[in-house]
Amino acid sequence: MAKTARRLLVVLYLLALVVVPVGLVFWNALKDGLEPVVEALTDPVVVHALQLTLLAAVWSVVLNAIFGVAVAVLLVRYEFPGKRALNALIDLPLSVSPVVVGLSLVIVYNVRDGWFGEPLAAAGIQVLFSTPGIVLATTFISMPLVVREVVPVLQEQGTDQEQAAQSLGASGWTTFWRITLPGIRWGVIYGVVLCFARSIGEFGAVKVVSGNLTGRTQTATLVVEQLYQNFNQAQAFTIAAVLAGAAIIIISVVATLRVRVERRGA
Amino acid sequence: MSIIVDGVTKRYGSFVALDDVSVTIPPGRLTALLGPSGGGKSTLLRIIAGLETADRGTVAIEGVESTHLPPQKRNVGFVFQHYAAFKHMTVARNVAFGLEIRKRPRDEIAARVDELLRLVHLQQFADRLPSQLSGGQRQRMALARALAVEPSVLLLDEPFGALDAQVRKELRQWLRRLHDEVHVTTVFVTHDQEEALEVADDIVVINGGRVEQCGSPDQIYDTPANEFVMRFLGPTTVFDGHVVRPHDLDVFSIAVRDAVRAEVTEVQRVGHEARLGAVVRGASGITTVSLTRAHLADLEVGVGDTVWLRLAKGASRLPIEVSR
Which residue from B210, B185, B212, B249 is spatially nearest to B31, judged by alpha carbons? Predict the structure, then answer.
């Protein structure tokens, strides 16, 4: 039957493109048992890299959640000149190569002649080749994800509930916290999850701005690359599996929660 | 006077939604803003509530100059056509919202919510989410929510517009009874002339951004200010150079005093009612007459027969306007 054939085609496509390669990462990580896994994950360089990745991802999530919701509210609820330009600009980090993002940050934040880098260095803040640069690059790359998840939810919610709250005496701020935000919470949560998953996987931009200093500015993805280049494949696969596993777990948890809540609401 | 709107003008780009509108809404009464869609009645209601701002003119509510007050400072209850239920809150929390904002003691809120849910017959639905209610129930919840804060005026924007015909009829009679109990100054927007005539104490007819007429339902119906108001309140036809209502025409099968001779061109039955189309001698158009089925049977007339038409005593009629 044509329907079965079509279904089979989609399944094969997904298998070949996603399931098999990612599955093989886990297979390779675990094929020699748990001992090399534990060994790989207790290596101080790896521990530091994972901590740095987590730190960058958390910062990126917090910043993008706050500014993502603010930008989405601005785009949906307000009319202002330059709105379309702003709307297009939001998508830039998704369409520009991360390496280009990294290089652009280097131009602006370098200590010698960067527009922001020079005054910041004078104030004793080093951005490039240190944690702030990594956070900045990670946040930049994952910026559109919260905005793009929240905008449609906000549009669908409409302004009636907000206006009703105001006519009942709620200030703008109260209306936002008690009506707008609970209404868009699944958009925010989904955006945050995608943002987190994208952040822990960031490679290109971070590689350019971090300097890739082992044990200092090396994130988990950079360690994976270095281990792989040095023919230390077992350890590389182990960290790769940790990164992939983390992303898969949080996305499945949120997807399950969402289904459950939607069912209760219906 | 409860609400005084003075010289309000509102434009959206080049479209004039309200053109120098002045209306006075008396306290404690149920007033309908009646008119066709796009005529400006909802805009006027939203300006009174503070959800839109007027380009020119002033609004005073209960003697308080409110033109530049934000909606949350006007103490106005607003009910939306599509309910605007807070989807993530239970029915009870929806109703309690305004009281929680005002930081009233918890037991006072609980008591008031309970009382209001009883008033709108939703006490058994207190713990449901709005998505588990029917449209009519949601609108009653929205009404209880608006009443909870004891507003000085209650504003309803096409409150029954999204409901089906049966529920709409029930709810509007219920609104009338509720108003007789609660007595809060109420303004509701509708495009349904039957709804306005049935429910309201006063009617303001709005069209093309202007007030066409204000008055009691009887005044508006019996002495329409112009052809628009007359046509908007129900079917009309042309007879003897005037706009009249089809049921205000008497039909005879024999010549009587003051009656005009006409030839029947069509006979149509619609349920319990019958319609008769006739051309008066020397007139260009068809005059429509509505009569009961029994009356039609008595007349024993068909297409091509001759009848005599006369305007009933006390019937409203307006000379035809050449152009408006």
Answer: B185
Inter-chain CB proximity A168 and B129 less than 8 Å = no
Q: How far is A170 from chain B (nearest CA, A)?
A: 6
Residue A181 lies in a domain: yes
A168 residue type, one letter: L
pTM passes above 0.90: no
Structural domain includes residue A199: yes
Q: How far is CA A153 from CA A88, A182, A183, A186, B73, in A?
A: 19, 11, 8, 8, 29
Q: What angle separates helix A185-201 from helix A44-77, to the nearest 10 degrees?
A: 140
pLDDT in tens, A37-87: 888 889 999 999 999 999 999 999 999 999 999 999 999 999 999 999 999
- Residues in chain A with CB shorter than 8 Å from the CB of B88 are 182-183, 185
Domain assignment of residue A78, given as a range: 29-265
Position B324 scores a pLDDT of: 46
The CA distance from B210 to the nearest CA of chain A, in Å, is 26
Quick one: pLDDT at residue A265?
A: 54
Question: Is A19 within a domain?
Answer: no
pLDDT averaged over every residue in chain A: 91
Nearest by Cα to B83 from B70, B72, B73, B94: B94
CATH number at A157 reads 1.10.3720.10
Which among A167, A182, A265 has CB closest to B129?
Answer: A265
- For an interface test with A, give the residue of B48, B78, B112, B127 to mutate (most A CBs within 10 A): B78
Q: How many domains does chain A have?
A: 1
Q: Is the pLDDT of residue A116 over 60?
A: yes
Whether residue A130 lies inside any domain: the answer is yes
Instruction: Kindly list the residues from chain A whose CB atom is less than 8 angstroms away from the CB atom of residue B141.
Output: none
